[in-house]
Each structure stands twice: as C-alpha cells, then as structure tokens.
UniProtKB/TrEMBL annotation:
<comment type="function">
    <text>Required for the formation of a threonylcarbamoyl group on adenosine at position 37 (t(6)A37) in tRNAs that read codons beginning with adenine. Is involved in the transfer of the threonylcarbamoyl moiety of threonylcarbamoyl-AMP (TC-AMP) to the N6 group of A37, together with TsaE and TsaB. TsaD likely plays a direct catalytic role in this reaction.</text>
</comment>
<comment type="similarity">
    <text>Belongs to the KAE1 / TsaD family.</text>
</comment>
<feature type="binding site">
    <location>
        <position position="336"/>
    </location>
    <ligand>
        <name>Fe cation</name>
    </ligand>
</feature>
<dbReference type="GO" id="GO:0061711">
    <property type="term" value="F:tRNA N(6)-L-threonylcarbamoyladenine synthase activity"/>
</dbReference>
<dbReference type="InterPro" id="IPR017861">
    <property type="entry name" value="KAE1/TsaD"/>
</dbReference>
<dbReference type="InterPro" id="IPR017860">
    <property type="entry name" value="Peptidase_M22_CS"/>
</dbReference>
<dbReference type="InterPro" id="IPR043129">
    <property type="entry name" value="ATPase_NBD"/>
</dbReference>
<dbReference type="GO" id="GO:0005737">
    <property type="term" value="C:cytoplasm"/>
</dbReference>
<protein>
    <recommendedName>
        <fullName>tRNA N6-adenosine threonylcarbamoyltransferase</fullName>
        <ecNumber>2.3.1.234</ecNumber>
    </recommendedName>
</protein>
<dbReference type="GO" id="GO:0005506">
    <property type="term" value="F:iron ion binding"/>
</dbReference>
<dbReference type="GO" id="GO:0002949">
    <property type="term" value="P:tRNA threonylcarbamoyladenosine modification"/>
</dbReference>
<feature type="binding site">
    <location>
        <begin position="165"/>
        <end position="169"/>
    </location>
    <ligand>
        <name>substrate</name>
    </ligand>
</feature>
<keyword id="KW-0963">Cytoplasm</keyword>
<feature type="binding site">
    <location>
        <position position="136"/>
    </location>
    <ligand>
        <name>Fe cation</name>
    </ligand>
</feature>
<keyword id="KW-0408">Iron</keyword>
<feature type="binding site">
    <location>
        <position position="198"/>
    </location>
    <ligand>
        <name>substrate</name>
    </ligand>
</feature>
<dbReference type="InterPro" id="IPR022450">
    <property type="entry name" value="TsaD"/>
</dbReference>
Length: 376
C-alpha cells in the first residue's frame, strides 16, 4: 500500500510518500520490517515566525498556500524511481491519502485539508483524516530514507506501551494497548513543555524556537547553580504543569539583576541547564511512575521536544533500569513531518476500512473537517 501524507497543522508544510507492505499490522514475528519511506519533504516557516516570537496562524496559512503544490510535486518526484510521477498527468500510484485534520491551528489545517480533498476528488483516491498526535506516536516505527528495519527488535511491537508526547502545544502521557488503541492518562494543566522551552528562551534572548537554543547553551551550563522547582513531581496523578517553572526562571532573572549579577553567557548557560534539568526530571519520573502503574512493557517518546538529547538519554536509562524497552524516533522525524501522518493514515484505514475513521464505512472525502482541538 502506498500512502501520501499531508501535514499543515502548524508551521511546517510537509508531504511524504510511504510504502507499507502487510502483514505489518498483524505484528507477526519477524514481519515487521515492512515500512519504507519513499519521500519526506518538509518546508519550514520557522524563520518567518521567528520575527514574531511564535507562530502566527494566518501567516502560517498563507505560507502553506504558497508552498504546498511545490512541496507535493517534489515529494511525488522523489518517491518515484523514474521521477515521472506527476500531478498533471495523474500518473502516481497512490492507494490512500492521509491528511492531518487536527489538532492544530485552524487556518493552517484548512490548507492541507482543502489540498488533500482536491487531489482525492480530481484523481479519485480515498482520503482519510488523521490525528497529528497519533502521527507523532507512530514516528517511533520510522527509519530514515533508505533504511528498512531488518529485525523485529528495531521497531516497537510489544504492548501495552506508555507514550510520552512532548511538543510545542502538547505534553501528554498516552497508554497504547494496541496499534490503534489509545487512552490519555495525563497531560499538562497549563503550558506544554515545548512552550516552556520557547518562553524561557525568550527570557534569555535566545530567539525562536527556543528548544534547540536552550539545549545547545545548556551543554556548557551547570545544572546545580540555580536549583529550580520540579512542579507536580509528587502529585498522585500523571498530569504536568510547566508555567510555574517558567515563572521561576523569570523571578530568578529579576533577582539576579537586582543583586547586580551580570547575565552573561555563562549565567545564561547555567539557567538554561537548570531549567532543562528540572523539566526533564519531571517528565522522566512521571513517565516511569505511569509505566509502573499501568504495567507496560515499552516506553516511547515523541514530538518536537523528543529531539532533546538530555531527555532522550535520561528516559532511555530510566526505562532500561525498569527492565522495559525504550524507543524514540530518529531525529529527522521528531519535528512535524508527513511520513508520520501517512503511517497514522495506514493504521486508521486498517482499523476501520473506512475513508474517514470517524465516519461510517462507505462515506467519502466530503465528510472530513478540521478539528483544531482534537484529542485522544
Ligand atoms: O512537534 P513540534 O515540531 O510542533 C508541534 O506540534 O508543536 O514541536 C515543536 C516544539 C517547539 O516548542 C520547540 O522549541 C521544541 O519542540 N523543540 C525542542 C528541541 N527541539 C525542538 N525542545 C527541547 N529541546 C530540543 N532539542
Ligand atoms: Zn507536532
């Protein structure tokens, strides 16, 4: 099955082609290495939004409109071995189109959905709307272009699994009891952890997006110079809160300035390092607690913040200490991309056999609508 993925929920215009050969879904022993990425095109608008310190929804939509046809054409061309899959000729053997229908920014989502509907209608292809967050989860099954997993141990195949999904808009613990069965067990009560990285980066004048900038300068920082709180670490539930941690950094900076301490590169590195340490500590400990509570065999990490080296390393060590298996996506799939959307489309399609997972079998692309607040 060859699937076209389309993603425009935030500030990346992404189109990808993915080939999945059954019996992947059946998860039978030794038959899991059947996912092949044919193309993965991502056009990032990050520089455009950097000027505003965050993503501006209408600007994002305008850029998606400008870029999507070119990104699509490039993805088709890359995917075809001969380079001759083309929109104009209708020559592209795609079996299913998967588009992100939520969660995300309304105006941005609409562009991808309208584009996907147009292709589906004019070329008579089935279309499925998929959940962006499920896409992040499935990024754990992906390998970079040209690589195909050659052993069942290289991709997740044991359930139940606990997913820590960390992005700019979400921080969620999601129990996965099978390929298509999800249950939200915890989430942030206020800011998402990626948002906290972005806000702290702004306080330290590091620009947008803040996550990569914080983790970079934190490499030279002392995580113990400025002890910061670890919010909700001991709460009985599996929820998070990161806005207090960001405010703690704000007060720390104010106090240091009042004391006449120079906010030089070393001080910034120490603050970044302390902040990162606190955030990662809470994420890791809560994930492990939830894994124990639900008796899972696997822990998976995903979302934009899963690019963070400290988080990847600490969660891996903690997971293995519990005797559990750890997965995180290759760096190329931690941020928003359309390969993960294509794979989510594959699983949703397998589950229902319907064109739209939320609609009765037999309904068509007309029923797909954007769902900016879609949740698990
Ligand atoms: O999943 P994603 O690409 O977009 C959303 O769906 O939100 O996540 C973007 C978030 C941003 O907040 C960005 O600062 C954060 O991921 N991020 C990081 C790192 N790389 C990206 N946060 C911490 N460390 C990183 N290395
Ligand atoms: Zn995302």
């Amino acid at each position: 099955m060859t699937i076209l993925g389309i993603e425009t929920s935030c500030d990346e215009t992404a189109v990808a082609v993915l080939k999945v050969n059954p019996p992947l879904y059946e998860a039978s022993e030794g038959h899991l290495g059947q996912i092949e990425v044919l193309s993965n095109i991502v056009s990032s608008q990050v520089k455009l939004h950097a000027e505003f310190g965050g993503v501006v929804p209408n600007l994002a939509a305008r850029e998606h409109v400008k870029n999507i046809s070119h990104v699509f054409e490039t993805a088709l061309k890359k995917a075809s071995k001969t380079g001759n899959w083309k929109l104009e000729t209708g020559n592209f053997p795609i079996d299913l189109i998967a588009v992100t229908h939520g969660p995300g920014l309304g105006p941005a989502l609409l562009v991808g959905i309208a584009f996907a509907k147009t292709i589906a209608m004019t070329h008579n292809k089935p279309l499925i709307g998929v959940d962006h967050m499920r896409g992040h989860v499935y990024s754990n099954w992906l390998k970079p272009i040209g690589e195909i997993p050659n052993s069942k141990f290289q991709i997740p195949n044991k359930f139940p699994a606990m997913n820590l999904i960390v992005s700019g808009g979400h921080t969620e613990l999601v129990l996965m009891s099978d390929y298509e069965k999800f249950e939200l067990v915890g989430e942030t009560m206020d800011d998402a952890v990626g948002e906290a990285f972005d806000k702290v980066a702004r306080l330290l004048d590091l620009g947008y997006p803040g996550g990569p900038a914080i983790s970079k300068i934190a490499e030279n920082g002392d995580p113990n110079r400025f002890p910061l709180p670890r919010p909700m670490l001991h709460s009985k539930d599996f929820n998070f809160s990161f806005s207090g941690l960001k405010t703690a950094v704000l007060y720390l900076l104010r106090d240091l300035k009042e004391k006449g301490v120079e906010i030089n590169d070393q001080t910034k590195a120490d603050i970044a390092s302390s902040f990162q340490e606190s955030a990662v500590d809470v994420l890791v400990q809560k994930t492990i607690h939830s894994a124990r509570e639900y008796g899972v065999s696997t822990i998976m990490l995903s979302g934009g913040v899963s690019a963070n080296t400290l988080l990847r390393n600490k969660l891996k060590i903690a997971t293995e200490k519990e005797g559990l298996v750890f997965f995180c996506p290759p760096l190329v799939y931690t941020g928003d991309n359309a390969v993960m959307i294509a794979l989510a489309g594959y699983f949703a399609h397998k589950k229902t056999g319907a064109v739209d997972p939320d609609a009765p079998v037999g309904t068509s692309w007309q029923t797909i609508e954007m769902q900016p607040n879609l949740g698990f």
